[in-house]
């Protein structure tokens, strides 16, 4: 059987005031053709379908149109989508039953009311034999983790998260074995594992940041583990425990990465049961980071041929403010797109206040609002969450109007 593992699409991302819609359109078009060309049986999408809990309408349209096109691919048996920490449970859950008619299984929170054990059978065959089992584990929120540790009291939240998630995977694995212990069992997940390489665009999603869960722990149970959350394509200690990474670079820290998806072939042969091939996603929009003093940066700007490149500049100069002005004027003359200019924090000439300052270029609109909320020290967490949701809806409506 052939599985295609992808994650972290972040549809609807607004990147320093720039939409990623054309990049996402190109990726989904490429993904659809890749599924057809490689006769993929199962598509696994391991979380963070959308960038925010209130995605703009154009992002929802991209998502639904893609799933509709998937239903017309003859080779594709099943599509399994799990929620990530960026995804809204209600947004993904709303069309869940309708999508099942298209053989698309959506798992949003993995609580007791939701079936995460998905048998993969030959399509269009009555009483078909189960060929593999997928344990579709989404991003596990605190309430679900506590359910998996029923009867235990753990005061330390970090330990609770580790133990709860481990218990959840063990329970899922044992349920899958009860169905059939002689066929491949695949797991999905959305979390940070020990040894995983991170970039600047991921958030810590559990107390303590990195969980005490490594590739060996998951590898001992499952034949393949399809992970999401980290944006760099990588294996975690074992050939069959992998992150697919994001299909487009989501921050300038990812500008030198090669974006990929994983093509996983599971054979009956004991010699090579699981084979993983990394497929490179074509780059639609180049992100480039330029560092140095004024003259170095000017020289590198003049060497850029692709005028659509998005550029981040790091200035290390005796007079950084003057250099900033010079660089922006040159970029305008060269018709280049500079999205952010950062002044190296090591400059002795900068005042202490400037050293601590955060450029608005570095923050999303939502992050600016969250920082403003933090200053208010609002004790009512529900009210604070409601304010954030209302603000996100306003931003989403604004972005939507910009697309018209």
Could you explain how this protein is built, in words?
This protein has 404 residues and is an alpha/beta fold. It contains twelve helices and 17 strands. The protein has helices spanning 21-37, 57-70, 89-93, 96-100, 142-148, 157-179, 215-219, 294-303, 320-334, 352-356, 365-376, 381-403, and strands at residues 2-6, 14-15, 18-19, 42-46, 78-82, 104-107, 117-121, 130-136, 185-190, 224-228, 234-235, 241-243, 260-266, 274-280, 287-292, 310-315, 337-343. The strands form four sheets. It has a six-stranded mixed sheet with strand order 6-5-4-1-13-14. A hairpin with a 5-residue loop joins strand 11 (234-235) and strand 12. Helix 1 (21-37) runs parallel beside helix 2 and helix 11 (365-376) packs antiparallel against helix 12. The longest helix is centred in the middle third of the chain and has 23 residues, at 157-179.
